[in-house]
Amino acid sequence: MRPTILLPASIFWACVYAAPSTQSHHVLHEKRAVEPHALGWFQDRRLDARQLLPMRFGLRQQNMHRLEELLLEVSDPLSPKYNQHYTPAQIIDTFAPSDESIIAVTQWLVDSGISSDRLHLDGNKGWIHFDATAGEVEDILKTEYYIYVHSSRGEQYGCHNYSLPAHIRDHVDLIKPTVHFNPHPSLPTSLQRRAGKNLGAPSIHGGPKKATDNVPITPTLSNCDQFITPQCLRSLYSIYYKPLSAKENSFGVVAFTPQSYVPSDLDLFFKNFPSSQVGARPKTVLIDGAVVKSSPQSFALNGESDLDLEYAMSLTYPQTVTLLQTGDEVEGAGFDNWLDAVDGSFCKYKGGDDPSQDGMYPDTLPGGYKGKASCGIVAPPHVVSVSYIQDEYTVTPAFANRQCYEYGKLGMMGTTVFHSSGDNGVAGNGGVCLNSKHQPASGGTVFNPGFPVSCPYVTAVGATQINPGKTVNDPEGACEQVIYSGGGFSNIFPMPSFQESVVKTFLKSHPPPYTKGQFNNSGNARGFPDISANGANFVVAVDGKFERVYGTSASAPVVASIFTLLNDARLAVKKGPLGFVNPLIYSPMTRLLFNDITSGGNQGCGTPGFTATTGWDPVTGMGTPNFVKLLAYVLTLA
Ligand SMILES: *[C@@H]1O[C@H](CO)[C@@H](O)[C@H](O)[C@H]1NC(C)=O
Ligand SMILES: *[C@@H]1O[C@H](CO)[C@@H](O)[C@H](O)[C@H]1NC(C)=O
To answer: What ligand is nearest to the CA atom of residue 145?
Structure first.
C-alpha cells in the first residue's frame, strides 16, 4: 500500500485556498549529461502521449549545504565532536525536506491538474510520486519524451531536458524518469568478456583484468613483484594483528549480479592462504532478488567476486564478511540499489530509483524479481568495499549529488565506503576520453574521471605495484602493469576543504603539463584518489585455477580490510568505528602513517597522465597505509 500524501491538514488547506501563488516562468532544470547516440542509442519516435509514467519528484533536502560541515564535525580527528556519529533517525530529522517544499511542489502539481489524491509522499518525505501520462508530464515539465532504440539493448524512453517554474526549482533536486539516460555504452568486445550483461554490469564495472601469460604460480615472499598474496600484503603494509571483535565488527563487500563468487574457488584459495580458513563463506545478503551462482562460469563473471572475497576474508579472518549481492539476473542494479538496502532513508517504494540508472523493483521484465525493492534490510556495515565504477559524464550533476549526499550520510552514521578509482589512468572505462563538450569521443583528449570516486564523501582507492625486481621492503610505484590507477579531477564536485591544502600544493609545485580544457586545473575541483594499495599480480583462485589479476578492484578490498582491522581494535576498547576517513587520511597528523608513493604515472587519453610525486597526487592519493602505525594512532582518538 502506498500512503497518500500526508500533510498537516491546516497548512495544506490554507495553502491550496490561499491567494494564488506567484506563478513564474519555466526555467531549464536539468538536461542530459550525455547524448544517447554517443552510447549507441538512436532517437526513434515520440513516446505515445497516453503512456503511463511512474513519476518521482526528489524534493530538495534540508541542510544539504551543511552536510560537509556536519560530516567533518564527526570525522575530523581534531574536532571536539569526533566520532559522535548520528543515528538513522537523527539523519532523517536533519535532512528531510521542509514542509514548505512539500507544500510548494504539491500545490504547483495540483494547480497543474494532478489532483491531490493522485500524489503520494514516501515515508521519509524525500520523494513525491504519482503516475501520469506522458502527455501530462510533457505539459507540466515543458518537455518531449522520445523512444530510443539500441541494436542489442532494446528500447527505452527519456527526454533531452525539462523545465520547472522558477519558484519551484529551489524545492526540487531532480525528477525521474527524465534525462538520466541509460549510461551503458556498448563496449569493445575485449572488455565485454570482463563484464556482465545487465544494468550495473558493463559500463559501471571496472575490472579486474588478468594477465595473458601462463607463468606457473609459485608465490613466496621473495617474488611479490610477480605474485601478490595475502602474505605479501601483510608484509608491505605491516598488517600484523589478530582480530578481537569480529562479532561486533562488520565488513561489507558489494557485488552486482551477474557477478558471482564460486565457493570452491574460496576453498582452493584458502588451502594455500591459510588452510585454517577452508570452508569459510561470506554472509550473503540478497538485495532486490539477487542470486549467487555457485558453479564456475567465466573469469568475466567470477573474477571480481572471487578476488574481493578471497582477499577481504583472508586479510580479516576470523571476521565474517557480508556479501551485499545486488540486483536480479534480468535487470541488474546500480549503486542506488545497495544504498537503498543499507539506508532506509534513501529508499522509497516506487521511489527515487531511476529506471535507466538503477534496477527497478519489483522487476516487470519476464523472469525478473517480483518482490518488493529491498529497503533498509540490513544495517550499514562499518566498512564497505565497492570495486565498480562508472564514468562521471554519464550522470547528471543532480543525480550525482543526490547519490553523493547519501555517502555523506553513511559517513555521518559511522560507515566508511571505499571505491576502486578505475583502471584506465586519466581515461574512463574502456579507455574512453572526452571531447571539449564532455561527450565520449574516439581520439578525445579530455580526461574522463569516474563516479562515484569523484564524490568527496567516498574514499577513492588507487593502485600501486611492487616495481619489477624489487621486494616488499622497497618503495612501491604507481601501478603500470596491465592497468593504470584511475585518478584526476571531478567535473561535477568542488574540492572539499579537507584536501584543499595538499591538492593545491600538488597543482602549484608540480603543475601538470595539460590545459584547463583537458582537466579542471583550477584548484577548485575534487581530486582523487585519496589513498592506494597494491593492484598488480594478485594471485586469485578463479574457476578452479589460479590467475594473476590486476586492478584497483584488488586495491579497494585491501584498504577496506586494513580499516576493518583498525575498527576491530577500536571496538575492542569500546570506541566507535572510524566512519568517514578522508579527513583522517588528509590530516597533517597522519602524514607519516602512510607510505608516500613518488614514482610512476597514470597514462591515458594519449598522454602520460599525471605523475606520482611527494605528497598527494592524482595517481596514488596520499599513498598506501601502514597498518601498525595507523593502529597506534587511531587508538589515541576519541
Ligand atoms: C531541450 O530539448 C528540446 C527537444 O526536446 C530541444 O529542442 C531544445 O533545444 C533543448 N533545450 C536545451 C536548452 O537544451
Ligand atoms: C572547475 O571546478 C570548479 C568546482 O567544481 C567549478 O566551479 C569550475 O567551473 C570548474 N571549471 C571549469 C573550467 O570547468
So the answer is: 1
Which helix (H) or strand (E) covers residue 548, if one does? strand 545-550
Residue 597 known to bind ligand: yes
Specify whether the CB–CB gap between 430 and 437 falls below 8 A: no
Q: How far apart are CA 457 and CA 531, in angstroms?
A: 13
Residue 18: the pLDDT is: 39
What pTM, to 2 d.p., does this model score?
0.89
- Residue whose cell numbers read 553513511: 410
Band of residue 414 on the pLDDT scale cut at 50, 70, 90: very high
* CA-based nearest residue to 582, from 601, 559, 554: 559
Q: Is 23 in the pocket of ligand 2 (CB under 6 A)?
A: no
553 classed as catalytic: yes
- Is position 343 annotated in a ligand binding site? no
Distance from the Cα of residue 213 to its chain's centroid: 32
Which pLDDT tens digit goes with each residue over 515-574? 999 999 999 999 999 999 999 999 999 999 999 999 999 999 999 999 999 999 999 999
Give residue 516 CA to ligand 2 midpoint distance, Å: 10
Query: Among the atoms of ligand 2, which is closest to the Cα of residue 493?
Result: 5
Q: Quote the CA–CA distance of 388 and 557 in Å, as a whole number.
A: 12
Instruction: Give the domains, in start order, of the chain with CATH numbers.
Output: 9-61+96-176 (no CATH), 187-214+243-634 (3.40.50.200)
CB of 632 sitting under 6 A from ligand 1: no
Residue 412 has phi, psi (to 5 degrees) of: -65, -25
Distances (CA, A) of 23 to 164, 167, 279, 322, 340: 11, 7, 66, 51, 36
Question: Do the strands 525-528 and 488-494 form a parallel or antiparallel pair, or are they unpaired?
Answer: antiparallel
Beta bridge partners of 252: 322, 384
Compute the distance from residue 159 Cα to the ligand 1 centre, in Å. 9
- Ligand lying closest to the C-alpha of residue 144: 1
Distance of CA 331 from the midpoint of ligand 2 (Å) = 35
